[in-house]
Amino acid sequence: MITLFAPMLMGNNGFVPDGASLGQRSVVLGLLLAIYPLGQFVGSPILGALSDRYGRRPVLVVSLLVTVLGYAVIALGIEWRSIVLLGSGCLIGGLAESNIAIAQSAISDMSSPDERPRLFAWTYSSSSLGYIAGPVVGGQMALHLGWSVPFWLMVPLLVATLIWTWFRFAETHAADRQADFSLFAAMTNLSTVFTDESIRRLYLLNFLIYLALFGYFRMVLVYLVDRWDTGVDQTTLIYSGLALISAITSFFIMAPLTRRMGLNRLAITACIAAGAAMIAITVPSQIGSIWITGGLTTMMGTIALAACPTILSNAVSLERQGRVMGNNQAIRVGAESLSAMIGGALAAVTIPLPLIVFGIFLIICGGLLLRDFAA
Question: Nearest CA to 314 among 296, 294, 328?
C-alpha cells in the first residue's frame, strides 16, 4: 500500500481534487496509511482472545475471508476513485490481518520452547520477503496494468490461502466452551500489558526492540540517500540484500545459535550486537561498509525480533497464548507506527541521529535482559 498509495494520491489521479495542495494531499495520504495499522492495533487483542475461546482454526478462516473482502473493497475504491472505500478497505484489511497473532499462537501450541525461536524467526522472514516482493511486483503491475491490478490479484491469492487453510490447517487449540467471551474485555485486554506484573517488563522490552528495529529498517534508507546519494536502483538493491540476510539468518542461523547459546543469552547478545552495529553504520565513509555494519545489524536484529517474543510466549501458559500474542502484535504495530514518527523527528535534527538513538535503545534492552536473567 505504501509504495502505491503515495504516487497514486500525490499525483493528479482523480482521488483528490486537482487543485488540492501538496499539504492537503499529504494529510489524506497520512490518514489513509494510518488506518491499516490502526485496524491491526485494535484487532490483534480481539482475534487473539477469540482464538483462545473458539479455537485457532475457525477464527483464522473467518479472518482470511474478511481479508479477501478488504482487498476487494480497496480495489473497488481505486477503480471508483473513492477515498471512503479506500479507507474502509484498509480498515477491514487491518482488522482481519491482525491474524498473525493467531499464527504465532498456533506455533506456540504445537512447538516446544526450544523450537519456537526458529519458527518465530520464519514468520518474520516471511514478512521480510513479502516487503520485497510486494513493492517490486506490485509496482510494476500498477505501472503497466493500472493502480488496482495488484489488489485485484491479491483476491484469488487470498482465496487460495483460505481454501488451503480450510482443508490443511489442523486445530492446535481446542475451543473452551466454558469460557466467556466479552468484546469489551477483549478490547481492554491490552491494558494487561501494564497490569500483568509477571510479564509486563517483557512487553516493555519487546516494545523497545520493535521500536528500535523497525526504526532502523525505515531510517537506514534515508541515511543511504543522504550519506551516499544512492538512487532508486541502488537503494532497492541494498534493501533487498539486507532482507536476504534476514531470511538466511532465520532459516539457517537462528536454530544452531539457539542450541549453542541458549535462548536467553542469545537474546542479550543479539540486542547489544545489533545496537552497536547500528551505531557503527554512521562511522565509515565508504558505501561498501553497509554490507558489514548493516548486515550485522540486520542479522542480529532478526534474531532479537524472534528471540524476545519467544521468551514472552514461553513465560505464559498455553491457555493464554492467544491473548498474550495478540497484545504483543498490537505492541508491534504501535511501535512500528511510532518508529516512523520518532525517526523522522530525529532525522530533522541530523540524519544519522535516528540510527544512533535506536542503537542505544537496543543496547539498553540487552542490558535490561542481562539484569533480569541474572537476578
Answer: 328
HSE toward the beta carbon, residue 252, CA cutoff 13 A: 5
CA pair distance 29, 23, nearest whole angstrom:
10
Contact 322, 48 (CB under 8 A): yes
d(CA 223, CA 238): 12
Q: Give pLDDT tens digits for 154-169.
A: 999 999 999 999 999 9
pLDDT (tens digit, 9 = 90+) per residue, 16-31?
Answer: 888 888 788 878 887 8
Count other Cβ atoms within 10 Å, centred on residue 340: 15
Q: What is the pLDDT of residue 187?
A: 67
CA angle 189, 190, 193 (to 5 degrees): 115
Nearest in space to 290 (alpha carbons), one of 221, 200, 345, 215: 221
* The residue to which cell 518465530 is assigned: 120
Residue for cell digits 524472534? 306
Q: Cell 482523480 appears where?
A: 14
Q: How far apart are CA 238 and CA 220, in angstroms?
A: 10
Rounded CA gap, 65 and 251, in Å? 29
In contact, 249 and 113? CB cutoff 8 Å: no
Sign of CA dihedral 126, 127, 131, 137: positive
- The whole-angstrom separation of Cα 249 and Cα 116 is 15
Cα 259 from chain centroid (whole Å): 26
Within the chain, residue ranges assigned H as helices are: 2-10, 22-54, 56-79, 83-96, 100-110, 116-145, 149-168, 183-187, 192-195, 200-228, 232-248, 254-261, 263-280, 290-314, 321-349, 353-374
Residue 177 has a CB neighbour count (10 Å cut-off) of: 7
